[in-house]
Amino acid sequence: MTPEQRSRKEAAGTGAAAPRSLAESLRARDDVSLSALLRARPDLITPVPTDLTQLATRAATRASVVRALERLDRFALQTAEALAVAPDPASYDELLDLMAGDGGAEADPVVAEAFPRALAVLREQALAWGPDDRLRLVRTARELLSPSPQHPSPTGLGPTVAEAASGMSPGRIQEILTVTGLPSTHDAVSATASLTALFADRTRMAALLATAPAESLEVLTRLVWGPPYGQVTPDPAPRLRWLLDRGLLLPTAPGTVVLPREVALHLRSGRAHRHTEPLPPALTTAATHRPQMVDATAAGQAYTALATVEELLKDWDEGGPSVLRAGGLSVRDLKRTAVALDVSEPMAAFWVELAYAAGLLASDGEADERYAATPAYDEWLELPPAVRWTRLATAWLAATRAPGLVGGRDAKDRALSALGPGLDRSAAPEVRHRVLALLAGLPEGAAAGHDSVLARLRWERPLRGAQPTAEDLRGRLAEWALSEAELLGVTGRGALSAHGRTLLGDAAEHAPAAEPAGPGDKLPVHHRHHPPALREPLTAADRAAAADRAATLLAPLLPEPLDHVLLQADLTAVAPGPLQRPLADMLGVLADVESKGGATVYRFTPASVRRALDAGRSASDLHAFLTAHSRTPVPQPLAYLIDDVARRHGHLRVGAASAYVRCDDDSVLNEILADKRSASLRLRRLAPTVLAAGADPATLLEGLRAMGFAPAAESAEGDVLITRAHAHRTPPRTAPEPVPDGPPTPDATLLTAALRAIRAGDLASTAPRKPGPEPAADGDLPRTTSAETLATMQAAVLTGTALWIGYVNAEGTASQRVIAPLRVEGGFVTAYDHTADEVRTYPLHRVTGVAELADDQL
């Protein structure tokens, strides 16, 4: 049964009287309908209400109603706005006329076809209730959507004649009746009713306006679609005086007039909205590509994303930038990171935040706090490339942090920095999923136009009251989602890839297969049923399975790592593709990266060769490594470079005097002493083969290398020190938790338990009791003496009847329960508790009283 059918069935009832309150309306619902309500508005069961009356009260609170209104699509919100300005209560046909105009379905068939769905959504989310002949909007929603001078109605309608004339003198109202040709009355109430009847009568109103001067009609035209308020002087112009005399404009305050709602509706032909949007805007296709090309492009971007994250964390391997006192990266460190990655600063912020969201990056928490890779990064590196990508992509989908905000200002005008506070936006995951789901609804290989995606999102989640700041943020989140999906390789050439579609899980399966092309088209199933927020949420197991399937699809598209490079005579090596990790790590020590792209170019320099020698490699090791991994012969210049640097490497020894230099060749030491550049090192000869220095060993090493020598450091035992890169890691860190946008959508288990508790509590609070000598008032606990309580309990054990009791627990919380006593002994009663749906034992001294239920109950 669709929500529309269920809504009409509930509205029609089963012959019972119409509900008098929202609580009674909820009480008439079945479990399927209540589950849909709780899934759409999870804040209603946080915590679980005790009964349906409390559920209805919570559903009418301002915070909950605002949250529910903000999650309506545009047409459902327009329907709620029309119901807010309709008579209370309104009939189905009256509300339809407000949406479609005079004539209802005949005036606008498209609106008439979409209207039942919108009304069903309002009913299902407990924003509207009542049968079709007595529709009511929840009072809080009516107050939020109703017009006032301070908060004009979204419909542009002003107050009714009765509301606007409430502050007018009875004599003035009688004067208006006289001018309009209506008979005078004895009181202001009947006069107002007579004037309202005139303005609501299309025929008589048309005759009245036919006599209006053109200038007066022009005034009405300017006010008809809102705002309905205007300013007048103490001596109004004739065109205004004509309208004021006939009540077509009514004063609300000194110098202020308003166009009554009934007059505006006549001029609008009965429509509450100037532009009604029953159908979502169609997505436009910006380009169409072959699916294979899209997947290949996306796979290339996915590989680039992996390489970029690895390069970022490798650059921070020995400890990254310092953490600002307020948290986050400094502007200077972000610029350095952008230069190191050869990307723009906004893009660098995205990669840094992505690594952080995936748990690969965190602060080390030490006194001199710095950012560094986490132990999870080393585990991540050992995974297959496709699995590593899914870890990044799933972290991006769930993250509430918005890297696009970096560089902006917060509400207190403080700068927003990468990895800093203030970047969480709870709507970000929902926007990302919805953008990708919309792309999934297009044919494979089709890229959607950005403007049409933004228009669709604005229709699905419009902003009540046109809040520009929030609307701008949601639009920017969508734009960032599109660009970040392309960077990450979820999309390729603007179209959703096969692995990206699979990663979404059922979000793609629920997307519309086709969009309505015009007013005559039927609403897609997706829009006739639940909006995105009402779907069953994916479980952790579902998400893991979707990630595994996405990795399986992506793996064949990623390039295979190579085990070779191409050495060239100009002291460079070309890697024509991604390299296997051991080869890439060793080559990164032996050479410097000169350029990146489709192929990576490495350059060998004396400093890079010396770096490899410092890491413990010998010249023969380097020759063997290059011979084994080059598809071309080792060029002679490269072989000479390695041999030359190795011959001089370690010829000089540096230790601590503060430092010393020793060399078996005293002529080399003489050359050093004679060099003017050694003056800052404060060298002096201790022996023919030893020089002492006033500088520390590290400074001495740098100074001698700057002079063209290749010294090696040695230990106190005289052994050559082998220097290897130190991988600094943070203590174990968990990935940052997303900031939820309100309570999470409950799963089936929680819904079942909540419904059972609410139904049982409602049974306890509403079950009819047998009349007693002093019946308790509604909501009061039953009161009986201890002797009466014990006697009634013992009798119920013998007869097997159910009882209504009041109970106060150890914390002093009072509640009402329906129990079936099984045993009474030792000051305790053991009974089946219908409220909790289990057998429990209660101390008799905590039972405030007991009453028998009516014979037809339980």
Structure description:
By secondary structure, this protein is of the alpha+beta class. The protein is elongated. A hairpin with a 6-residue loop joins strand 1 (128-129) and strand 2. It is 45% helix and 12% strand. InterPro entries: WYL_dom (IPR026881), XPB/Ssl2_N (IPR032830).
SSE layout and pairing:
Blueprint: H1 3-12, H2 22-27, H3 31-40, H4 52-59, H5 62-69, H6 74-85, H7 92-100, H8 109-124, E1 128-129, E2 136-137, H9 139-145, H10 161-164, H11 170-180, H12 188-200, H13 202-210, H14 214-223, E3 229-231, H15 238-245, E4 250-253, E5 256-258, H16 261-267, E6 285-288, H17 291-315, H18 331-341, H19 345-357, E7 361-363, E8 371-373, H20 375-381, H21 385-398, H22 428-440, E9 446-448, H23 450-460, H24 468-488, E10 491-492, E11 495-496, H25 498-503, H26 506-509, H27 525-528, H28 540-554, E12 566-568, E13 572-575, H29 581-590, E14 592-595, E15 600-603, H30 606-614, H31 619-629, H32 636-648, E16 653-655, E17 659-662, H33 666-674, E18 683-687, E19 690-693, H34 697-706, E20 712-713, H35 748-766, H36 786-799, E21 803-808, E22 814-825, E23 828-833, E24 838-843, E25 847-852
Parallel strand pairs: 16-20
Antiparallel strand pairs: 1-2, 3-5, 4-5, 6-9, 7-8, 10-11, 12-13, 13-15, 14-15, 16-17, 17-19, 18-19, 21-22, 21-25, 22-23, 23-24
Helix pairs in contact: 1-8, 6-8, 6-9, 11-12, 14-15, 17-19, 18-19, 21-28, 22-24, 23-24, 30-32
Biased composition (Pro residues): 733-746
Pfam families: Helicase_C_3, WYL
Domain WYL: 788-850
